Amino acid sequence: MMTKLMHNWHLKLLSLALAFVLWVVVINYDDPLETKTFEGIPVLKQNEAAITGQDKAVQYIEGETVVVVLRGKRTIIDKLTSADINAYADLNRVSITNAVAITVDAGEEVEILRKTPNEMLISTEDIESEVRVVQVQYSGELAKDHIKLNEIITPNQIELTGPTSKLGRVVSVIVPVEISEADDDVTSFVKPQLLDSSGNEVKGLEVSNNQIQIKVPIKKIKTVSVSIATSGELNENYRLMSMSIPVKTVTIYGEEEDLESITKLIVNNVDLSLMTDGTTSETINLATYLPEKVSLYDVAPMTAVAIDIEPIISVNRWVEQDDINVKQIPEGLQFQFIEEEPYVVSVKGIYSELLDFDTEDMLPRISLADLEPGIHEIPLQLTIGRGFELGIEEMPLVSIELTIAPVEEESTEPEEETTAAE
């Protein structure tokens, strides 16, 4: 038996080898090996918490996707898609050069010829948190004669978390609000925007609130004048010289129906009965003179009413006979003053005005109309200008005597008598 098997063994072995080669040729003819390139295969990041757990942020410089070249039988290669290829990088194995090897798994039936890149390159930096104030950025113009009051922002601060370099780029946190032609309150829910110095949005940071509520009160405005109304009576021994307020007009705001009836702001509690001489400055709050639902806009409420009050004093002025203008002297009569003493007249007024008040300002005069010859006492007539008054109950009597004026004799020349010659 053994002799038969070994008979022509080399021919038998050659036949077996030829048969194997023929089988391989046939197989490869029907299902040949092929090479195929797969691009954009995402690289799964494993154990990222190994870095982020240390309050550090990871930035991926290179290797978030990989190009893989595979070789395998046509029947297998043709069926493969990108979803069948897994690529991953274990961030728990970062080298000192911040490189992580990329591993590709495409199954046992294909051969991985190459992958590009072979490593994922990363950089790390500290993660920090900062609280920033939220600011409103308005666009558009309100309806005519309307203003916006201070907005209510909820929350008005948010916390930003992320890499130090990105936090440093954020110069403002804004929420845009549109108010075009608005004539009533505006309420918006807006996602905050993180902007750099150029107005570009900074991405890659976590925010504590993704929705910010903005309430913008919109009110009607109106401009009205300011006036002063006094109460009480000023003491008779004083005179109100002036009263002024530096604020001549104010702008007020409120609901339209509340503003309709307001034409001016009246400061109506200046009590003159409490005033004495001198210049007084009384501090007032303009807001207290407005109705409950109406307020001042863009003006300080506190101001002062300046009140100038001076005392009334009496001074004596002497009227000399030469100061008296005698009018309407009856025809054919002449007069003379009986008394030589001056007449004393008391005049009341403000000290500063009385300084320049002289006797001639009173225009002293008497009238002799319709009087007969004899001695008469005639009331002195005076004209007192505005702001002054006499401090006497009766006018002084001027004593005069009227007499017949002497008649001047007319001088006549005698007529020459002429005698006719005979």
Characterization of this structure:
With 422 residues, the chain is mainly beta. The chain has four domains: 33-117, RNA Polymerase Alpha Subunit, Chain A, domain 2 (Beta Complex); 126-216, YbbR-like domain (RNA Polymerase Alpha Subunit, Chain A, domain 2, Beta Complex); 220-311, YbbR-like domain (RNA Polymerase Alpha Subunit, Chain A, domain 2), CATH 2.170.120.40; 320-404, RNA Polymerase Alpha Subunit, Chain A, domain 2 (Beta Complex), CATH 2.170.120.30. The protein has helices at residues 2-6, 9-30, 49-52, 74-77, 164-169, 256-259, 351-354, and strands spanning 33-46, 56-62, 65-73, 86-90, 99-105, 111-116, 119-139, 146-148, 152-154, 157-163, 172-178, 186-190, 193-195, 206-207, 212-216, 218-231, 238-244, 249-254, 264-271, 278-285, 295-297, 302-319, 325-327, 333-337, 343-350, 365-367, 374-379, 389-390, 397-404. The strands form six sheets. Strands 1, 2, 3, 4, 5, 6, 7, 10, 11, 13 and 14 form an eleven-stranded mixed sheet that branches. Strands 8, 16, 18, 19 and 21 form a five-stranded mixed sheet that branches. The longest helix is centred in the N-terminal third of the chain and has 22 residues, at 9-30. It starts with a helix and ends in an 18-residue tail after the last strand.
